[in-house]
Amino acid sequence: MLSVPEIYQRLFERYGQQHxxxxxxxxxxxxxxxxxxNTHWRNVEKALGNLGNQLKPQVISAMPHDQLAxxxxxxxxxxxxxxxxRLLSQWFISYDxxxxxxxxIDGALLRHTLLSLKGVGRxxxxxxxxxxxxxxxxxxxxxxxxxxxxxxxDVPESYEHFRLLIEQQLxxxxxxxxxxxxxxxxxxxxxxxxxxxCSGCPxxxxxxxxxxxxxxx
Length: 217
Ligand code: SF4
Hints:
Layout: H1 4-15, H2 26-35, H3 41-51, H4 57-62, H5 65-72, H6 78-93, H7 99-103, H8 107-115, H9 122-131, H10 142-151, H11 159-167, H12 174-190, H13 208-215
Helix pairs in contact: 1-12, 2-6, 2-9, 5-6, 8-9
């Protein structure tokens, strides 16, 4: 079975650097991480486009709920997301919007704080930690679970167990975790979707699922 570093190597050789996250500032990244919950990125882009130059923590935290929800409508769950963005913006403002000050916080403590914010679950928190705050926490999402279980890993149900299992096999490098997650998403979109398209997949010759398919004819 391919090791965690070997999978990375194969994906990087195929797809190269992904330049994630697509945001112009740490705050925009945080907003995108909330908006992308349960929707496609193209819908997030529409909502971000609606926000336009109002995409500032002070503006969003002060905006009337209905107005904000209406702007977020394309991203779905817009009432929930409006509330979450308002709280997230207030939290960001409590650090004077100083990203470097937040980056100086210990990673585990910062993760704990993010997880205490309404609507920020583990996957969202780890995305924020990697892509906005330069903290190495491996991100587990649906693509990650699908890929590793198809490759042949015994994937733990628990997010934390799975995250630690992968982190034990990698150096704690934020650049590596940044790239690895983006590469898994690239593979998930091109090949390892809910219905896999294995032909031409860079992991095809070593994938447990491919072998099962071959055995089953
Ligand atoms: S060979 Fe198929 S199942 Fe295996 S990782 Fe690639 S797309 Fe997914």
